[in-house]
Write a structure and sequence with these properties.
The structure holds 2 protein chains of 2 kinds. Chain A is globular and about 40 Å long. By secondary structure, chain A is mostly beta strands. In chain A, strands 2, 4, 5, 6, 9, 10 and 11 form a 7-stranded mixed β-sheet that branches. Chain A contains no helices and 11 strands. Chain A has strands at about 5, 10-15, 20-25, 30-35, 45-50, 55, 65-70, 75-80, 90-95, 105, 110-114. Chain B is mostly beta strands. Chain B is about 0% helix and about 60% strand. Chain B has strands at about 5, 10-15, 20-25, 30-35, 45-50, 50-55, 60-65, 70-75, 85-90, 100, 105-110. In chain B, strand 6 and strand 7 form a beta hairpin. Chain B is globular, with a radius of gyration of 13 Å. Chain B starts with a strand and ends with a strand. Classes of the chains: A mainly beta, B mainly beta. The interface between A and B is medium-sized, with 28 and 25 residues.
Amino acid sequence: EPEVTQTPSHQVTQMGQEVILRCVPISNHLYFYWYRQILGQKVEFLVSFYNNEISEKSEIFDDQFSVERPDGSNFTLKIRSTKLEDSAMYFCASNRGQITDTQYFGPGTRLTVL
Amino acid sequence: KNEVEQSPQNLTAQEGEFITINCSYSVGISALHWLQQHPGGGIVSLFMLSSGKKKHGRLIATINIQEKHSSLHITASHPRDSAVYICAGISGAGSYQLTFGKGTKLSVIP
């Protein structure tokens, strides 16, 4: 069964460094999402991406964040200058884009900012 | 602002018990996902509901659109059902991103 994959599974970085989290969505899906979950808190929407541009973004998704689909398969989340409070689990998800469609989640990348 | 509220936050049950988790949601939400999150963190979608009722094995999900309320039921609970169950609302327009509830941590004791 097709699945969403994410790399790396765990990323440790120093405050102020740039990180890129990578996702490979399911191949025939059209909408891609990033969510994050701070330890002990609920999952929060960051951004959605469709047709090579941002479709929606939350107030969390400020100028330090960016997303890109550099080729036909990868979908990346870049955090330009990491802060301690960016430490969280980051989930990528994808679906075909109908309201009735299941969203398929990747296993997550745990980001630790020191 | 779209909101999703779940109850209870924590639930401990004996193996075999019937379990109900409740979810209420705000006006801007037009459909719901029920998701399961295991201790390792992975998230799996169990159901997507916009009306009525769905059943998969021992899991049953219902939604009442007028009352903006949904329930997830687990029949004949088993220790392997132990996980966090999350209700997430779908906004009606745009990219259908999810607004998550805080989750219900279920522990089923043998």
